[in-house]
Amino acid sequence: ARSQGSWTTRARRDARSSAGGATTRRARVAMPRPPALATTTTTREGRATRDATRTNAVDSAKSVDVDATTTRDGAEAIARDEGLRGHEEHLKYRYATYRARREAIESAEGSLDAFSKSYEKYGFNADEKSGEITYREWAPAAAHCALIGDFNGWNGEATAMTRDEYGTWEVKLPKGAIEHGSRVKVRIFTGDGAQIDRVPAWVRRATVEEGVMGAGYDGVYWAPEEKYEFKHAAPKKPQASRIYEAHVGMSSNDPKVNSYREFADDVLPRIAAGGYNTVQLMAVMEHAYYGSFGYHVTSPFAVSSRSGTPEDLKYLVDKAHGLGVRVLLDIVHSHASSNVNDGIAGFDFGQRAEDSYFGQGEAGYHWLWDSRLYKYDNWEVLRYLLSNLRYWVDEYKLDGFRFDGVTSMLYHHHGLQMEFSGDYEQYFSTATNVDGVVYLMLANEMLHSLYPEIEVIAEDVSGMPTLCLPVNEGGVGFDARLAMSIPDFWVKYLKERPDEQWSMFEMVSTLCNRRYTEKAIAYVESHDQSIVGDKTTAFWLMDAEMYSGMSTLNEPSIVIQRGIALHKMMRLVTASLGGEGYLTFMGNEFGHPEWVDFPREGNNWSHDYCRRRWDLADADHLRYQHLLKFDKAMLALDNDYPYMGAAHQHVSTADDGRQILVFERGDLLFVFNFHPTNTYEGLEIGVPEQGKYRLALDTDAGEFGGASRCGFGVDHFTSPEPVESWVGPYEQTPRAAKMFVLSPSRSAQVYYRVHEHTPVSSEPSTEDIVRENDASASNAR
Asked: What is the rounded distance in angstroms from the CA atom of residue 586 to the CA atom of residue 526?
């Protein structure tokens, strides 16, 4: 039955492709005949040669079948996950589709590399030698196109464009014909006689007239005489990414829209000093509606003009690299704003899907987001999106991407009204959008092959298997996924359960519920948990008392004591047990209060809740400093004893009765006591190796707002007797030795083993046996 589901997907696609009419020229892989790539070859012989190449490419793609003999067939992932066995045919089919599309691109365009650099040919480009300006736009359904703007007085008859046989319109202008920074649009004449003015799809800057309510966006010709020159090399890809999610516009302490340069000078140093090695920038792609958090993109190639110019963004990236911080971009390829006047959605004016960036009907519209959906099997859509990725990396020296809304791309239902249970039937069936999956495979393979140090992260709520496996191993190719179930777990606990009832077993089950062959980025809260209608974690814990109880000049209330203690513990247990990397949203590292609310009519267009209160963290008399200091120490610990990305992870105790949690990660030993009142003196715990242990980090330390009930100068010695331990109802194999520690209520301690010289023995020690058993268990897992 599983195999039949996979074949049904293929049969449905084949039937659609052979239904006649507008879809007859699609191959089995559902790709339209490749249109012309503008080149310098214009002779009749050259044109005939390219046409023959395209025909051969499509014919070759038509003949590709899931049973085609190749070095790899997409089923390699089964070796990592036996649960995929029943979906082998689906894996082979999607890989064959990927291979067919890639080979068609390589045959018609020369290479995936060349295809993904189409930003050098489409949009506005000036010849380096002659200065001649060429503007190209794909609009196959247009009857006529003309370039308009300040340069020609917005005269639709002055600068007519010519069309090639594949629907690409082109015009060439002499050097200096369009002034840098001047406004431009393309006027499209439709088949029914109407004319519409649109912001060019490939435009690299778009602006709106300041101070005019409801003013529309114009494209801007961006060709500065002096481009920003990068000074700093990008940092290498870290073992574990410590990601700082940031929104430049709302990063100011003042109620205003912040700039790229202000962010670079004022906020980046905070990020670097905090121990984060990566900043993830939201809302950089141009979006007409500020309140969309940047996710309703209107111009994918343009930098959001609210915060500055393209050169200003380059300054930001360069400044980050100089501070040792990598930069990821929130990339939105899952949908586009439905705003036809200000963005790419305006290029859909009722034509057939093959001639549009978007699908038709339900396939082209996301009813929950009120946005348009890309048609991922269209040749020009692939050109556009792949080139968009290349452009951001090549032009701005970005270090990677966080793909937004991946779940919507993976399934025809877009994850709407779905409850993903982990059943593999939900991932590999007729509901799977193979076109979307194949686009992501092409994107990841292109990025990783061209940029070995790049990092690409998926925001996927479904948990699709193979998402974060390499393409050549049958995967979709992402480096990691966001562990989205973890913040949901914490919000549920904060809303529904007093911490006296928090279950250690449920906590462990949630934090460890991931495929260890695929990396995950753990987090307590991102921007999602802070938007209006919800609260930050700190506000859930302390609520209104944050307004009156955060002064160090007064004794903390029980609410404040509880909130600060749990805020630190939640972060530490998430960072150490929940994934192979860690993320926080801007300001939450110091317990930012309240929520995020963008300026809108409902709040009288106020910026009061659309900013970051850095002054709270900087004030010596407020307790926010304690949370910030702890966050810094937690990340610094990963530098001294890399634990976030460590392969070794072993939970030895999860005791709901005592609310004790003990586990190992890397070379460190973590002891959590979530009990609100019980302190355990001489708590007996299992340790992986005999020896002497010392305290490395303590959430209860005075500098972090704690009571300093543990001592950093205390040596803890082990004894060789094993200790009984349980994780929920499951008894665990005893560790190599045991140790006694002080475990204060609502606190966590991290221990490291002091390495001392010991005589070499030919006999294996108990520790050696335990390590060997751990390694065997890890390999089996």
From this structure: 8
Rounded mean pLDDT, 646-659: 97
Total residues found in the chain within this entry: 781
Burial of 631 (0-12, 13-18, 19+ CB in 10 A): buried
770-779, long-range: CB < 8 A, 24+ apart: 770/688, 770/689, 770/735, 770/736, 771/688, 771/689, 773/733, 774/648, 774/650, 774/688, 778/516, 778/647, 778/648
- Token pair belonging to 155: 């005269």
Q: What is the token pair recorded at 187?
A: 């006027």
What does the angle CA 10 – CA 11 – CA 16 come to, to the nearest 5 degrees? Answer: 100
**Residue 496 Cα to chain centre, angstroms:** 29
Q: Would you tell me the crossing angle of helices 88-109 and 44-63 to the nearest 10 degrees?
A: 170
pLDDT of residue 533: 67
* Strands 582-585 vs 242-247: parallel, antiparallel or unpaired: parallel
In order, the DSSP letters of 721-751 are: -----EETTEE----SEEEEEEE-TTEEEEE
Distance CA 697, CA 630 (A): 9
Q: Pick from 567, 561, 555, 467: which is nearest to 525 by CA?
A: 567
Please report which helix (H) or strand (E) contains residue 172, including its range.
Answer: strand 168-173
pLDDT at 595: 87
pLDDT confidence of 4, banded at 50, 70, 90?
Answer: very low
- Please give the average per-residue pLDDT across 671-679, as a whole number: 98
For the four alpha carbons of 481, 482, 484 and 489, in that order, the dihedral sign comes to positive
Report the chain's mean pLDDT, rounded to a whole number: 89
| Statement: residue 778 has pLDDT above 70 | no
Cα distance between residue 369 and residue 365, in whole Å: 9
- Would residue 404 show up in a list of annotated catalytic residues for this protein? yes
Contact 747, 699 (CB under 8 A): yes
Q: How far apart are CA 316 and CA 328, in angstroms?
A: 12
Contact 410, 464 (CB under 8 A): yes
Active site residue 127: no
Q: Single out the catalytic residue among 76, 89, 404, 698.
A: 404
Beta strands in 190-318 (DSSP E): 195-198, 206-208, 217-220, 242-247, 278-282, 285-286, 299-303
DSSP 152: G
- Give the tokens for residue 135: 């503007």
Say whether 672 sits in a helix, a strand or coil: strand
- Dump pLDDT digits (tens) for 284-338: 999 999 989 899 999 999 999 999 999 999 999 999 999 999 999 999 999 999 9
Out of 137, 399, 459, 499, pick the active-site residue. Answer: 459
Residue that is written with structure tokens 């292109």 in the block: 446
Q: Tens digit of pLDDT for each residue in 283-297?
A: 999 999 998 989 999
pLDDT digits (tens, 9 = 90+) for 467-521: 999 999 999 999 999 999 999 999 999 999 999 999 999 999 999 999 989 999 9
Query: In a 10 Å sphere around its CB, with 0-12 CB exposed, 13-18 middle and 19+ buried, how is residue 36 labelled?
Result: middle
**DSSP class of residue 519?**
E
> How many C-beta atoms surround the C-beta of residue 301 within 10 A?
25
CA distance 178 to 183: 9
394 DSSP 8-state letter: H
Distance CA 104, CA 100 (A): 6
Cβ 304 vs Cβ 294: under 8 Å: yes
Integer Cα distance of 246 and 281 in angstroms: 5
**Spacing of C-alpha 701 from chain mean position:** 34
Q: What does the pLDDT look like over 29-52, one tens digit per residue?
A: 334 333 332 323 323 233 333 333
SS (H, E, C) 566-620: HHHHHHHHHHHHCCCCEEEECCHHHCCCCCECCCCHHHCCCCCCCCCCHHHHHCC
Selection from 585, 206, 243 nearest residue 400 by Cα: 243
